[in-house]
Structure to design on (784 residues):
């Protein structure tokens, strides 16, 4: 009896979710087509869909996509390299952790996007400022999780390996790295997600190219339907990228 | 005991943690001396914090004592000696991301055993502890008792003369301890290893050991050494014999006051902190 | 290094940390004075001395007050929304099962993409900044409250009911106190979200807020004033974060 109620509740909540999403779509359609909501505020969902198809077919998004992806990959490569290296060396002694960990955590707690004007002033409106900001912001979750990963290796494992005569290199390769990897991978995933947001954000605020910038252009041109389509497009790209990274993280964890 | 018979010589070893006057100051061991004969199984037993694990770590070169010396196989101990000494820890010493077999092989890699011997040695030691069928399992898939068997297999495959075991069955339930104790006795009867075994359990000490060193409360020193004269491998019937009961009672009498002292001391220190 | 200095430093990593910060400031000072074009970077000494001038720039104090106002209002609204939705979702298992996945889905979307939309809808004034701050801050608070209510041990509810507590009494004396630490943890994250949302909106477009002045100082290539203003904003962010963090520690003592 309880199991049947469980299943009923499961189906019920699923129904509510689907109903909710469908309801939004229906309301949207009615608002623009029946209730006379200004098309300049809320575009017709059909028009948005058509614009989306047009965007995908025309591949006019390619140059912007290329810019954004390049910025993202370079920024992430930088933050990954620096973050893991610095994090590893800080994790070597308890004292250096006590000195540096609060420093990194403290800086990370303020919205580093604040420094965007400084980066724009220094690097200009081009990709360099986005890369610099993206690398700076994503450095912190990576370095913090690297420190946490390496410093939380079970002491007994290290003692056991040393008692069996492991060299420093063997200790690093066979004990420290596999032990720290899950935490580091999750930090990398966080860093990637944050880098993506930072880069799209800085493209929105101050840029000459890129996906964020394109949305701004469409907004300024009041091309609502196409803007909505572009927003949907960028959201899908972001979700896809994050999904890939999460998948890689899970794969990486299974190896250890 | 002549130098030739003594596998381990402990001379005047004291150890303290921290400096006098600091909050973390602890005198763990006080002037402990002991000779351990080749091939004997010596148990260290005593109340919590009496320094028995500290002494084990000092013997194995994992810690340098604040005073005193240790000699193993005639050489002074200055650090880990993986060729001569192998450890079995209480828990968490198996690498969770490696299978049982990989764990055993890693130990040999660290010690420097030539790769050609890895497979045969690993197989033999896994069979000896009864885990041959679980070679490709991960520690997370095994019970506590099986994990400790795996840890023992890893230590055995290193073919050291000395084996140091720090409460290896401490995290296991009573019944598993019983079985593992019996199996261990059978296994060790066929080797000539010198074994130092730290335990809390009176019954375990009497069952396994040739000699039992009883420690006093902190700062720990050896109060008395009791000899258990019973041939190896020890049979399950030994446990219900009168000789066993008498030895166990003797241990109890020696330990009880020390345990009471330790409990009183820790309550006192918790009040003042 | 004398032995006593060494021991002092070993016992006070905070001092060494301060030393690291000082070293960074010195490196910045040297680089800005002698190596980099003063059009792009300003040494910390000059920035520090010009803080007064920044404050006296027409409109800056008003802009800082406006930004603070935006932050406070956005935070208050986010807390109210987060609390109501969080309790509504957390207390009813069916509602939770239905709506929580949707909330999580929305939370996972990159809100930055709809920033231009917010400006179109709410205008370039304070309203859009507040709205964007609210949407960033309300999710962590909601989720924290849902989690806080959820991990209440059922045995506590059972023992309260067995002693005859009414539904209201259970809510007031068992669920509510249990939820407080999670609530404050959520507020800490919510404050970060609100800071992020409001600042993003300000930087995007602003006529009277600090975003206006960051744009102005950037376009005029005035790194001194820009660094100064950013420092003031960073200080505001640190203070606000610290207030919420202290509140969280104080109210989470029983954990």
């Amino acid at each position: 009896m309880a199991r049947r109620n469980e299943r009923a509740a499961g189906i019920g909540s699923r129904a509510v979710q689907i109903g909710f999403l469908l309801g939004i779509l229906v309301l949207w359609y009615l608002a623009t087509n029946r209730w006379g909501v200004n098309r300049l505020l809320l575009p017709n969902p059909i028009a948005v869909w058509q614009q989306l198809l047009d965007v995908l077919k025309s591949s006019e998004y390619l140059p912007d996509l290329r810019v954004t992806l390049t910025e993202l990959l370079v920024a992430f490569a930088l933050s990954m390299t620096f973050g893991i290296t610095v994090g590893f060396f800080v994790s070597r002694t308890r004292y250096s952790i006590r000195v540096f960990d609060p420093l990194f955590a403290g800086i990370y707690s303020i919205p580093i996007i604040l420094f965007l004007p400084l980066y724009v002033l220094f690097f200009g409106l081009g990709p360099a400022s986005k890369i610099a900001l993206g690398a700076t912001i994503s450095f912190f979750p990576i370095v913090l999780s690297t420190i946490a990963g390496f410093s939380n290796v079970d002491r007994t494992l290290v003692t056991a390996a040393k008692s069996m005569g492991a060299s420093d290199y063997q200790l690093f390769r066979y004990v420290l790295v596999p032990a720290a990897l899950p935490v580091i991978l999750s930090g990398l995933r966080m860093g990637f997600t944050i880098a993506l947001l930072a880069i799209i954000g800085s493209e929105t605020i101050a840029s000459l190219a890129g996906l964020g910038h394109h949305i701004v252009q469409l907004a300024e041109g009041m091309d609502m339907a196409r803007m909505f389509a572009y927003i949907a497009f960028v959201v899908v790209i972001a979700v896809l990228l994050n999904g890939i990274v999460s998948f890689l993280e899970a794969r990486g964890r299974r190896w250890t | 005991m002549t130098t030739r018979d003594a596998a381990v010589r402990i001379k005047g070893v004291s150890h303290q943690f921290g400096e006098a006057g600091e909050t973390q100051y602890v005198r763990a061991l006080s002037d402990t001396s002991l000779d351990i004969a080749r091939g004997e199984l010596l148990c260290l037993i005593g109340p919590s914090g009496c320094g028995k694990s500290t002494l084990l770590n000092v013997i194995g070169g994992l810690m340098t004592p604040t005073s005193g010396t240790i000699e193993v196989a005639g050489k002074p101990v200055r650090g880990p000696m993986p060729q001569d000494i192998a450890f079995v820890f209480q828990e968490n010493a198996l690498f969770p991301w490696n299978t049982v077999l990989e764990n055993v092989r890693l130990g040999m890699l660290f010690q420097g055993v030539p790769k050609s011997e890895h497979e045969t040695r690993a197989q033999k030691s896994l069979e000896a502890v009864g885990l041959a069928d679980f070679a490709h399992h991960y520690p997370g898939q095994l019970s506590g008792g099986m994990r400790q068997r795996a840890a023992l297999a890893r230590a055995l495959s290193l073919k050291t003369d000395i084996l140091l075991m720090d409460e290896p069955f401490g995290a296991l339930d009573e019944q598993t301890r019983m079985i593992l104790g019996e199996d261990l006795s059978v296994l060790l009867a066929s080797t000539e290893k010198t074994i130092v075994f730290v335990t809390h359990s009176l019954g375990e000490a009497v069952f396994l050991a040739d000699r039992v060193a009883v420690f006093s409360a902190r700062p720990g020193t050896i109060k008395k050494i009791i000899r258990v004269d019973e041939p190896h491998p020890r049979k399950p019937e030994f446990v219900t014999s009168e000789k066993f009961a008498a030895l166990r009672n003797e241990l109890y009498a020696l330990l009880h006051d020390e345990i009471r002292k330790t409990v009183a001391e820790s309550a006192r220190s918790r009040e003042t902190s | 290094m004398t032995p006593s200095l060494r021991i002092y430093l070993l016992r006070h990593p905070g001092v060494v940390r301060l030393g690291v910060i000082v070293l960074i400031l010195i490196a910045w000072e040297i680089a800005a004075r002698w190596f980099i074009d003063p059009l792009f970077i300003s040494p910390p000494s000059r920035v520090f001395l010009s803080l007064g001038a920044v404050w006296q720039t027409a409109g800056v104090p008003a802009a800082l007050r406006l930004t603070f106002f935006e932050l406070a209002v956005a935070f208050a609204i986010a807390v109210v929304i987060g609390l109501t939705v969080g309790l509504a979702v957390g207390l009813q298992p069916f509602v939770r099962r239905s709506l929580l996945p949707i909330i999580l889905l929305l939370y996972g979307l990159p809100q930055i993409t709809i920033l231009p939309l917010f400006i179109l809808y709410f205008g370039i004034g304070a309203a859009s900044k507040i709205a964007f701050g609210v949407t960033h801050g309300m999710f962590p608070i909601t989720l924290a409250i849902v989690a806080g209510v959820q991990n209440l041990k059922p045995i506590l509810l059972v023992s309260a009911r067995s002693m005859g507590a009414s539904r209201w009494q259970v809510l007031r004396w068992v669920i509510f106190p249990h939820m407080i630490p999670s609530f404050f943890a959520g507020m800490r994250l919510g404050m970060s979200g609100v800071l992020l949302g409001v600042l993003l909106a300000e930087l995007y477009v602003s006529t009277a807020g600090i975003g206006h002045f960051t744009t102005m100082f950037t376009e005029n290539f005035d790194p001194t004033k820009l660094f100064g203003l950013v420092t003031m904003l960073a200080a505001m962010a640190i203070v606000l974060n610290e207030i919420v963090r202290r509140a969280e520690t104080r109210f989470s003592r029983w954990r």
